[in-house]
Amino acid sequence: MGTPRVIHPLFVRITHWINAVAILVMILSGWAIYNASPIFDFSFPPALTLGGGFIGALRLHFAAMWLLAANAILMIGYGLASGRYRAKLLPIRIRDIIDDGRAALTGRLSHVDLSQYNGVQKAMYAAVLVAIVGAIITGLALWKPVQFQFLARLLGDFDTVRVLHFLAMSGIALFILVHVTMALLVPRSLLAILRGRP
Ligand code: HEM
To answer: Where are the membrane-spanning stretches (predicted)?
Structure first.
């Protein structure tokens, strides 16, 4: 049989985990920033926030955003330029999403071949990559509304951009919930994203 071949190259694994850490810091510090001026009728439990208050959270958010953005450029740049995303994430078919989603919910989805993503995975990975880019673009418009006026104008006013930024975060948070649950349910996949092969 020999050693199973590498499914996730080292570069993919390193950028995946840097992204995971950066996203977690961004979300948890973002929740503290949100709490200082909630958009909706609720705030996040302080225990689930990072930064120890508004100013600390803002500093942390602005520090981690460089890590997130630089890593996203490398991770997504590599995925696009190497053809990895084209090979692994496309085509995305509604039929596959429905069939594989149904199979997953009834415990009939095969996880034997980790080198191929199922229909739900393809759609979710592609969507979360778009959400990350969306969070960064709306974040730029919130961070420097004057310098990035064209962005803010393109997207609406400041408050609309805040809501869009919040929506991007919500999509990413929802993704993480499902994604981490699946990784724990299929530990071989976790091994693969840690050491390259199951
Ligand atoms: C925090 C804990 C996380 C765990 C335990 C985890 C686990 C995994 C695992 C096991 C895989 C491989 C899936 C497979 O081979 O079937 C994977 C891939 C992937 N994960 Fe995560 N992940 C985490 C965080 C994140 C976050 C925060 C994001 C994005 C917001 C993310 C986005 C992705 C993407 C896009 C892939 C596909 C990578 C590729 O094939 O190029 N992950 N993750």
So the answer is: 12-34, 54-81, 123-143, 163-186
